Structure formats: structure tokens, C-alpha cells
Amino acid sequence: MDHFDLRDGALHAEQVPLDAIADAVGTPVYVYSAATIRRHVHVFRDAVGSLVHDGQAPLVAFAVKANPNAAVLSVLAGLGCGADVVSGGELKRARAAGIPAERIIFSGVGKTAEEMALGLREGIGQFNLESEEEAITLSEVATALGVTARVAYRVNPDVDAGTHAKISTGSSENKFGIAFDTAPQAYARAAALPGLAVQGVAVHIGSQLTDLDPLRQAFARIGALIETLRADGHDIRTADLGGGLGVSYDPALPAPPSPAAYGAMVAAATAGWACRLIFEPGRLIVGNAGVLVTSVIRVKPGVHSPFVIVDAAMNDLMRPALYDAWHHIRAVRPSGERFEANVVGPVCETGDTFAMRRGMDKVKQQDRLAFMTAGAYAATMASTYNSRPLTPEVMVSGDRWEIVRARQPVEALIAADSVPAWIFEQPT
Ligand code: LLP
């Protein structure tokens, strides 16, 4: 559920008309709803909060990659969330937003020694190791700093997540995690390394999952592994179940499983584990909490249906170009008329297409459209391709709103480059 609704014929973010924001800030502009973010955290907590193990409630560690805006992270910090980070940059952002270090989980296959040192100096809660090679490096870095790193291995359960290949991570052919069958040996070797304290297991099989079965299978394998590891003498205290639960992009399709259904599945799968559970939801928390508002530059005739050329492009919202992702497109002030159109951006690539032959609200030049479900993996994946500056972001709460990232001036892009003096020398 979100807080983007039609009121008096105009699409609002909570109590603020999107038109008012677009008039003041220009377009394209991302708009987030704080109430929606809060609601999603509460719904998720309600779904998993009762799964107390070892006297500890689960840790909800927001996957920062989904939306790292400081205002978004601050809302989550205020709700007591932790963070799942995958780079030194995300770690610094999470800390800057006030997320306590002990609630930070560091994931990712390519952590550098410098990033490990940063995490260790901050005192983060857990490193999710993705290879034995990484364990050796972390051991060296921790030993040099004279500290102990709390670690889990991310185990690849070799299940098919049934999602888009580019966001599927739990098959044995993916780059993620250590192979399930070799896990006991990997744990034994990690436990023998100085500077490491083995405390948990981690799993994450993919994103935008619309079926609970692959997760259920993965968790069953993890449960069996926990028993093996304990029998081997490891003190397994945490089980990080990753993120991945899908959200609704197309209101015409059946909704993905609810957080409550997910929570019930997790309760059954983890009964008797006696581990503190960690969750890393990203999309579920912020996906439906954001929209991208864009203006129609012009409408151009096409062979089958007209091209609605908007001022947002693939550099602002990359998901359709990258994953053929489907985003619901609504008029900010619908006239009531509908038509079939192709919605495209101005970038010089055919891939800069948001929708083909889409039945949608009829719009004309200067009208505004909103791409829905653009709170996750949207602004954060933007680039400046075609020298298009990064899009501003706005946070709404009730009847208040504020710019939380200013529009990048194109001059900043130009000024970021430098030209060596010798470029101007005559070629010899
Ligand atoms: N934990 C780990 C280790 C992850 O790799 C991810 C996402 C998450 C948690 C959060 O997953 P979520 O709950 O958001 O599904 N750019 C793609 C999605 C990439 C997801 C990468 N990993 C998209 O736009 O669909």
C-alpha cells in the first residue's frame, strides 16, 4: 500500500499535489512518501517481529542499495532499522544517517581491504563473507588492527529463484556466496583464522521474488546447514535471510505474497533454529514509496501508436532498459480519456523506452506523468548519460515537502572533468 492517490482529480503524494512539487522543482523529479516508508517498515516488523530467538527480536537491515538518499535512511534510522551495505560508500552513508554500527551488515563479493578496515574501525555487526579468499583477507586486516571481525558466510543454496536472470543470485552458477556442499570445510577453516569470530550464516537468492517456494527451499537447506555447523562445534547465533520479497508493479497482475505470508513461511522454516534472525529488505520498504514525475515534451506520431516523449530517460530510471521492467504510468491530472501510446525518453538509444503500446491515461504536450513504484533501484541507479544531470529528489511527509537532493547543475558535470595542458600542444 502506498500514499499516492488521486484527490480532486490530481495525483497527490500524501497531502501534497505532485503538480505543486513539479511547478516548484521542475521535472523530472523523484518524490518519496515518508508515511509509505514507515508503513512498510511496520508491516514488515509485524510480519516477522514475533520471531524472537535467543531473547532477540529480528534485525531489519535495510538494503541501502535500494535507496541511499540521506532523508530515506534517516526515516529508517528513526525507526530503529539497521542497514545492509555493499560498499564503503554505503557504510558511510548509513553511519552518517545515524544507523548504529552494530546494526550494519556488510555484504558483497568484492569488499576491499580498505572497506574491511572501515567496517572494523566502525565496529559493524557482521561481515557476510562470500569466499574463503575474502575470509583470509579479513583475518589479516582484523589482526593488523588488533580487533575481531564477527562473520557469517553467505551460502549459495543452489535454488532457482524464478526471477529475472539479472537479479537472480542463488544458483550455483552465480558469483555469490560459497557453495553449499563446501560450507562445512569453509567454516572450519574460517574458525581457525585469527581475528575472525564465526557467528552466523547468510543467504540471499534474488530480488523481486513473487513465489515463496524458492525461499522456503533455500531456508530448509540453511536450517540443515546450521545443524551440521553446530554439530561441528560452531557457535551459530545469527541467520541472515536476505531480502528479495517482490512488490506490485502492475496493478492488473496478482500481488506478490504479502509480508504476512512471508513471515508465516519464515516462522515455519526457522522454528527451532535458536538464532537471531536478520532480514535485508530493500524494495519492499521503499519500492512503492517513490514516484518519478516527468513532463511530456511532445507527442510524435508513430506507425502503430504515438510516441509520448517525456523529459525523464533511461539515465534517470534504468530498470525498463536494463531488465525490461514494467512501471505503471499515470497522468498526474488524468482527463478521464485513455489512449494507446509508446512512452520514451530523449536519450539517443532505442532502449530508452519505458512502455510500448501501453493503454494509459491520454496526455498531450506539457502534461505530467508519474512512473509509479520508483522508490527502489531508481534514483540510485541513475547516471548522467547524454550529459543529463542527476534528477532531484523530494521527500513528502503529510502536508510538508522538501528537496532532499537538489537538481545537479550541468555546470557541475562539466567542472568535474579537467583537461591536461598538453592536450593543446601540437602533435609531434
Ligand atoms: N541483500 C542482498 C545481499 C542483496 O544483494 C539485495 C539486492 C538485497 C538484500 C535486497 O533485495 P530486495 O529486498 O530489494 O529485493 N537493481 C535491481 C535489483 C537488484 C537487487 C540486488 N540485490 C532491480 O532494479 O530490480
UniProtKB/TrEMBL annotation:
Similarity comment text for this entry: Belongs to the Orn/Lys/Arg decarboxylase class-II family. LysA subfamily.
Chain residues that bind substrate: R283, R319, Y323, E349, Y377
Pathway(s) per entry: Amino-acid biosynthesis; L-lysine biosynthesis via DAP pathway; L-lysine from DL-2,6-diaminopimelate: step 1/1
Reaction equations catalysed: meso-2,6-diaminopimelate + H(+) = L-lysine + CO2
Protein's name according to its UniProt entry: Diaminopimelate decarboxylase
Chain sites annotated for binding pyridoxal 5'-phosphate: G244, E280, P281, G282, R283, Y377
Enzyme class: lyase
UniProt KW Amino-acid biosynthesis keyword: yes
Matching NCBIfam families: lysA (TIGR01048)
Entry EC number(s): 4.1.1.20
Gene: lysA
Cofactor: pyridoxal 5'-phosphate
Subunit structure, interactors included: Homodimer.
Function of the protein: Specifically catalyzes the decarboxylation of meso-diaminopimelate (meso-DAP) to L-lysine.
A Pfam family: Orn_DAP_Arg_deC
Domain Orn/DAP/Arg decarboxylase 2 C-terminal: 30-375
Species name: Sphingomonas abietis
Ranges where the Orn/DAP/Arg decarboxylase 2 N-terminal domain occurs: 36-286
CDD domains listed in its UniProt record: PLPDE_III_DapDC
Listed InterPro entries: Ala_racemase/Decarboxylase_C (IPR009006), DAP_deCOOHase_LysA (IPR002986), De-COase2_C (IPR022643), De-COase2_N (IPR022644), De-COase2_pyr-phos_BS (IPR022653), Orn/DAP/Arg_de-COase (IPR000183), PLP-binding_barrel (IPR029066)
